[in-house]
Amino acid sequence: MAAGYPWERYHELQAKREAERLTPEEHAERIDLTDQIEGWNVRRLELSQQLAARRPLAGDGRKAGVGRAGAALECGSRRATAAQ
What we know:
By secondary structure, the chain is mainly α. It has a domain at 1-54: Orthogonal Bundle (Helix Hairpins), CATH 1.10.287. The protein has three helices and no strands. The chain starts with 6 loop residues before the first helix and ends with a helix.
């Protein structure tokens, strides 16, 4: 993991919590670390959403590269219908 990310400490505190040996100070530290991690996850999701919104659209309005499997299924269903 990148420097500055307190994963090791978080996992230490989590293990102590599960063993029911967490001090009140460590509990407060764990809550602070959890809040930081949740903030990073929110930011990561926001950035992912922005990136997805910038993807070019295909001519039929679908996201480029999305829906190819659906097109194959549609083609297959036409064959199944024609065979009946």
